[in-house]
Amino acid sequence: MIRLDRFISERTEYTRSRIKELAARGSISLNGTPVRRSDVKIDPESDTVEVCGAVIGSQRYRYILLNKPAGYVSSTSEHDGKNVMELVPPQMRTKAMFPAGRLDKDSLGALLITDDGELSHRLLSPVSHIPKIYIVKLDRPFQNKYVDIFKKGIEIGGGETCLPARVRQAENADNMAFVELYEGKFHQVKRMFSAVENCVEKLMRISYGNLILPETLGIGSCMELLHKDVEKMLDEPDFDRICTDFSDIFSAILINN
Ligand code: URA
Q: Which of 13, 37, 136, 245 is in the most buried spot, having the most CB atoms within 10 Å?
């Protein structure tokens, strides 16, 4: 059993004094009933705690999937201008959260925000072999020769060579393509296309492992991931199927944002 205010403060950004105020206002409920005091004891395994209508899960770490809009920096620092943490509602945030894997300021799409350092490391390390898939809008038409060039591992300047990557033209659009990467070098996708004399105009990350950004998650919105979603991130996706099934949906989202 632990105190309600400790349980909430460990899993959100709320301070204990703020939690006390929220409880006094009736904004915190325990098993569906408002609790006016924040020093009551609860059982994290069996009790359901809600703050301002959002359930605070009992798990040690929190996993938030943000559909990042363009114009936000993937950072936790308030000095970097508009940063992605501003888009996470306070009841979903914890003090130790950070974005797992950067997206450029002008990029959109799936961005995991978590306080689980070990999972973040697994997702980002090339050794773990967990792919991320991106859709891009190109300045010039896609060329089939990119498939072999990317597969061999393309040089992108600065003495850097990419690991073998898959690329495929999107259905029904000659200037849209999907790319699957197992690593995350600085501006990697943009530099890969620039190395084949094309140019990325827009870029959106659509998956981590086999967890695909839900089309119902609007740009700028967040959702809390369940354990089964986190497991999906560690699974191998079917790249070809994803390109076929999601071409129309993600091409339209990219064009309109
Ligand atoms: N590659 C890029 O060039 N930009 C991103 O935001 C992500 C991958």
A: 136
- Write out residues with Cβ below 6 Å of ligand 1: 103-104, 107, 187-190, 203
For the segment 41-56, the average pLDDT, to the nearest whole number, is 90
Distance 109 CA to ligand 1 centre (A): 11
Question: What's this model's pTM, rounded to 2 decimal places?
Answer: 0.84
Task: Specify whether domain 2-56 bears CATH 3.40.50.300.
Answer: no
Q: Name the CATH topology of 63-256.
A: Pseudouridine synthase (3.30.2350)
Pull the structure tokens for residue 239.
């790249």
Confidence band, pLDDT 50/70/90 cuts, at residue 95 = confident
% the chain with pLDDT above 70: 100
Please report how many Cα atoms fall inside a 13 Å half-sphere around the Cα of residue 61, on the Cβ side: 17
pLDDT at 141 over 90: yes
Closest-CA residue, ligand 1 atom 3, reads 187
Domain ranges (residues) in the chain? 2-56, 63-256
